[in-house]
Amino acid sequence: xxxxxxxDAAEDTAGDQAGYQLTTLQGWRRFTTxxxxxxxxxxEDKYERLQPLQRELYxxxxxxHHARLRVVATSTVxxxxxxxxxxxxxxxxxxxxxxxxxxxxxxxxxxxxxITQLGRAHELxxxxxxxxxxxxxxxxxxxxxxxxxARMIAAEFARFLGLPVRRSSNITDLIEAVVGVCTDTRTGLxxxxxxxxxxxxxxTGAEVADTLKKPSHLGDSVVCESWxxxxxxxxxxxxGSCSS
Length: 244
Prior knowledge:
CATH superfamily of the domain at 75-243: P-loop containing nucleotide triphosphate hydrolases
Shape: globular
Low-confidence stretches: 1-15, 228-244
Radius of gyration: 20 Å
Largest sheet: 5 strands, parallel
Strand content: 5-15%
Strand order of the largest sheet: 2-3-4-1-5
Helix content: 40-55%
Number of strands: 5
């Protein structure tokens, strides 16, 4: 393989990696619609005849496949999906404050897996209900960056939807653009990951919390993921339902 082909392969790999990011619409659609396809299983003789670079790429493809195996529907995943679906139905006809859901627990217990499986179930159900309709974005998924500000949260929503985020764009411009797109595309569920990155003891954190209340205008329900230590402030300041 020539150096030019190696460079092209590296560029394609970088593009593929960008497509796997759940915080982009492309990555989220790929997560919800594309089942993991197993790579071709080579015989031992064929494997030994591979060139070193080809062997490395083959091994990487197999590892990538095993990293994308199906998620086991544990009791936590089933409970989160059930509660989330009920909230979506309850909020569908709400004319005032809408209820949210906080999935909490120690680190490494599968909170992100639970909320993404809820989002996947909601997305697939929406596609089944509207098979001939294009342009719908039933689920929006973002993560809260460390030391997040209100504008950073608005920018995360905009990036997921593929909206341009310019330095001159203020938070009002971003929120209005996001709300407009989500209204037109019938967004029904907003997922917010890494909620514990918000500190309600500071003014900036309080502003971020207020910004996260605005997604109630985007979809029927808001589902957040957090670890135990950050829940006390949220339970006092939000009207969401807590689930462990």
